[in-house]
Specification:
2 copies of one chain form a homodimer. By secondary structure, chain A is of the alpha/beta class. Chain A has a single domain, classed as TIM Barrel (Alpha-Beta Barrel), CATH 3.20.20.150. Chain A is 44% helix and 13% strand. Chain A has 10 helices and 9 strands. In chain A, strands 3-2-1-9-8-7-6-5-4 form a 9-stranded parallel sheet. In chain A, strand 4, helix 4 and strand 5 form a beta-alpha-beta unit. Chain A is globular. At the A-B interface, loops of A face loops of B.
Chain lengths: 280, 280
């Protein structure tokens, strides 16, 4: 496997969010030659959508995805309706940014519920409700299967196969507008990963997120590693993605309370560039 | 779903290990009317095998499983050979105890390795190496799929489907001696759980471990909940087990640094009894 095209590196701004707002992250990407960026909506709202659009366009960056939509599960109908309305707004924002997708973290169990099958039905219904708007807006929905350790409180879609089953159920004729985000952190362990990436194919592979799984992992949420510092065979997974037809960006997304969030973001981005070249 | 037969409650001694040695756990089970026990090898060695056999027999307890064998993965052939030899000793101990199975926690990535497919091959080879001895000893091997968050450092077998694939590969003609341990903590999130329990059937369902998944979970290893305190739909999973033909014990196994390990084990066992009746 040859080294990846450095022009395909993208920054998910969660990686630098403790020290950089969105304007700084945009400037930082430009300064370091990172050509793709994935903003989060809270920072987008802080900066303002129009200024963000101008800054991103001014630097010629690609918006690899907007983080995030989803969170469809709720204890009552009013909560589910509010979630759908929020997703429609997110789609409009993603459209304004020219984002390549809206990333969906689907939501876990509603408060007080033990019915994970029911939660999964809520997710299906939620995505079905926003898919027409996504198609109109020209913003594909990228279902991100999250690691099973987040099944209760973040996302009840936990494997790539399950996400693709959902795509097949809601977009049976492959009309587009629906696919998956493959984040190595969530799926690296899956014995069916290679086959499911192949099954997804170019049409459904909308995003590729990279980081690493540390041993030991000290925190369930915010202890992701920099590429190369953990146990994920990144070149192998990238090869599977490419063989399946994915030609998009490689988006660094690192939640790291104990390490990378404490560092100077310029160092984090430079390290990401170096590790992308050397370890991915 | 009617309440479970209280006579099917068993204690995995990990639940009480911080305050009770094995002799105390055996006496505790007898005192509280818990009819099954699953010892761990370190405590078994401390007590001595013959005294343990006598005490367990004296109280008429069933040994639902010996914890644990496995850990087949290693960086070199000498390490893998040592693991196999240790598993053979574990089988002899399990035989002496009349254990219903030897629980296999398969092992994760060898130190320095990122090759999870290779680790899985090592596991397959390790189980193949000890299966004849298990059959001779009359101690079935129970492959325990562990939650994917342990894929790197504890077990690279992470779903029930994957464990059953391994059973089918190594025991193609269902000659016996090989099956699975279903621990709700590891598999509750799996969208294929019901189907895989059905697939396993009576012949391969060797053990059933219960506890709960807490929200939030504060530690990857030692923050399991008491049945009823988390989000797992225990009656539903028990129903699937019974429908598949499983008629064995329901073994409470709670690793809980922050809560249950700090309490009086008599309280823990009594609470387990009450929750088993009410929440399982």
């Amino acid at each position: 496997m040859s080294a990846p095209d450095p022009g395909l590196l993208a920054l998910n701004t969660a990686t630098t969010r403790k020290r950089w707002g969105l304007a700084q992250a945009i400037a930082g990407c430009a300064r370091h030659g990172v050509r793709g960026i994935a903003p989060w909506r809270d920072q987008l709202h802080e900066m303002g959508i129009e200024p963000a659009v101008q800054a991103i366009r001014g630097h010629g960056l690609t918006v690899t995805g907007l983080c995030r939509g989803g969170m469809f599960t709720a204890a009552d109908a009013a909560g589910r309706k509010a979630a759908i309305e929020d997703n429609l707004r997110a789609l409009d924002e993603a459209h304004a940014l020219g984002a390549q997708c809206l990333v969906l973290v689907t939501g876990g169990l509603p408060t007080g519920s033990k019915d994970i099958a029911g939660a999964r039905e809520q997710v299906r219904d939620g995505i079905a409700a926003i898919l027409p708007h996504a198609r109109r807006a020209g913003v594909p929905l990228a279902i991100e299967p999250l690691h099973p350790m987040y099944a209760a409180d973040r996302a009840c879609i936990n494997t790539l196969g399950q996400a693709l089953d959902l795509c097949d159920a809601l977009d049976a004729r492959s009309e587009g507008g629906l696919g998956v985000a493959v984040d190595v952190y969530h799926v690296w362990w899956d014995p069916n990963l290679e086959g499911q990436i192949e099954r997804a194919g170019k049409a459904r592979l909308l995003a590729f997120h990279i980081c690493d799984w540390l041993v030991p992992t000290r925190d369930l949420l915010n202890d992701r590693g920099m590429m190369g510092d953990g146990v994920i065979d990144l070149p192998r997974i990238r090869a599977w993605m490419q063989q399946a037809g994915y030609a998009g960006f490689h988006e660094v997304e690192i939640f790291s309370e104990l390490d990378w969030w404490r560092r100077d973001p310029d160092e984090v981005v430079e390290t990401s560039r170096e590790r992308h070249r050397r370890c991915c």
